[in-house]
Structures are given as C-alpha cells and as structure tokens.
Amino acid sequence: MTDVPVDAPLAHRVPDLGALELLLAVARLGSLGRAARETGISQPAASSRIRAMERQLGVALVDRSPRGSRLTEAGTLVTDWARRVVEAAEAFDAGAQALRDRRDSRLRVVASMTIAEYLLPGWLIALRRARPGTAVSLRAGNSAAVAERLLTHEADLGFVEGLAAPGGLDSAVIGHDRLVLVAAPGHPWARRGTPLDPAELARTPLILREPGSGTRQVLDAGLAAYGGLAEPLLELASTTALKAAAVSGAGPCVLSELAVGEELAARRLVRVPVEGVRLRRDLRAVWPAGTRPAGPARDLLALTRGSALG
After folding, report:
1. What are the pLDDT digits (tens) for 35-56?
2. Using CA atoms, how far apart are residues 255 and 242, in angstroms rounded to an integer?
C-alpha cells in the first residue's frame, strides 16, 4: 500500500532520480551491494532507498536473497519507465549545460566613465587569463545609462560610482573613490593659502559632468545644504573632456582622484583643498534586483572584490 495520497503533488508521488538510478543499477548488476557501490552510497542506505520507493509506489520492486537481488515483475516494469525518465533527465542536463556554455562564452559589461577608463581594463585582463574563451564587450556611460542597460538586459554586469545603487538593481560595494577639485595653475584657486569652503564652491560655476553621472550625484548631495550647484560653466559627458577643459584654463572642475594623477604630477592641474563637504563615493558592482551574477559575471565580480580598492 502506498504511503502517498493519490492527490499529492507529482514530486511526492514519483521517485527521485537518485532512487531511479539505483533501481537501474540493481537491474543491471543483479546485486544491491554492487549497485550501492556504483552509485556511491552504503548498502544499508541503498536498502532503505529501495524500501522507501516501494512504499511510495505501493508495490514490491526487488526480491532479496543470499544469491543476490532480482527484480519483481512490477520492478521490471518500473525499471523500463525509470530508464526513460533518466534518459530524459540526461537530455535535460545536456541542454542546461549547453545554455551555461553559451552564457559563459560572452560577457557584456557596462560601466560609468571612471571605472570603465581606469579600473576595468586591469580587471578584464585578469578575467581573460582565467577565462580565455569568454568574449567580453564593454560599454561606458553615466550611472543612469548603466542602470538602463542592465534593466533592459543589454548587459550582464555593471559598475557605477555614487552614493547608492540605481533603482531596480542589487549591488555590492567593491571600493571607494575620492573626488578632488582641480584647476589650472593660473587659476586664482590654485594659489590659495587656505581651503575652499562649501558655500564658495556651491556658488561658483564649475565645469561639470552631466546630470545622471555619479560625480554630479555626489556634488548635488554634498552642496544641497549650501543652495546647490551654480549653473555650470560647461557641462561635458566624459572625464577626458573635463580634464582638457580644466587644463586649458576654462575653469575649475571636480573629478575622480583616479583620473587626475598624471595631470597633478605634471602640474598641468593643481588640487584645490575643500573643507566641510564630503567628496567621497562608493564604487559598486550592480545587476538586476532578484538575480545573482553567474558564470563570467560572477568571476569578474570576484576579481573586483579582491582588488581592495581604497
């Protein structure tokens, strides 16, 4: 008599794959002990699994004797069905592996400008050593563009700078970045003897990144208590353009410390100290909420976490 009600869910009425594989091994080898060894379990565990399957189905499947184990008539019939189930499971597994192989053959990354220009090249070189068969594409944009591409499934993993992850995305903080105020050596701020205060920074037109960028987000939040940012002197969409404008003497700008090291060392730009405002932001890996990075996206995320960014 079966222990399982006839109206129970199918998963409760049908033996699991492990039990079916064990039954097939008993049929092929004629011995419960040998079948247990082949499937990697103990003989008592194999006996228990066969008895549980018999209770589940409500029929005897195996006759046990000192000479070995022999299938009953019902056991022979169930074995034929089990073989088809196991073959279907093997086909399912092969299809799933093909999907994983296709997923692992490419990685689409989208990142905000600073991370794309100054951090991702090193990470992608390391990923290529670990996964030489994975083709990687990288697109750069501001934080809002990164979120859009992830949410429309145009990318597998993203990276942004800012105070929080964009809506609809899960994230992991992988490091931190400081923003610095810089100006050309001829600018009056470059010769200041005291740090700039937030109120003066807020009321001065600056060369700025566009709305939606992580840099703009941090500045907007930091200077909100001082009336917010003044109308931009220039509004540019790339770090390279901002640096070029600042070096030319067009005006001061705020950039990632990662981006201006060479210009500061060569004195093409001068760092202007600022007191009383937090110009620090998180660097985040981001992906659609409710999912988890897998395959090469998971490996790239692990590489970024291991890089111990300031």
Report:
1. 999 999 999 999 999 999 999 8
2. 8
Query: Which stretches of 144-279 are assigned E, i.e. beta strand?
Result: 157-162, 169-183, 207-209, 234-236, 253-256, 270-272
pTM over 0.90: no
CA 208 to CA 231: how far, in whole Å?
Answer: 10
Angle (CA) 188-240-218 rounded to 5° is 70
How far, in Å, CA of 112 to CA of 177, rounded?
13
Q: Beta 207-209 vs 234-236: how paired, if at all?
A: parallel
3-state secondary structure at position 208: strand
Classify residue 186 by its DSSP letter.
T
Write the DSSP assignment of 224-249 as a string of letters.
GGGT-PPPPSEEESSHHHHHHHHHTT
Q: What is the pLDDT of residue 310?
A: 47
pLDDT in tens, 244-274: 999 999 999 999 998 999 999 999 999 999 9
Question: For 81-109, how does the pLDDT look when each residue is reduced to its tens digit (9 = 90+)?
Answer: 999 999 888 888 877 776 676 666 789 99
Residue at token pair 């709305």: 211
Residue 246's alpha-carbon distances to 33, 76, 250, 289, in angstroms, are 79, 83, 6, 38
Rounded to whole angstroms, how far apart are CA atoms 91 and 172? 36
* pLDDT at residue 164 tops 90: no
* Residue 244 to residues 56, 141, 173, Cα–Cα distance (Å): 75, 19, 30
Task: Please state whether 288 falls in left (phi above 0), alpha (psi between -120 and 50) or beta.
Answer: beta
How far apart are alpha carbons 82 and 47 in whole angstroms? 18
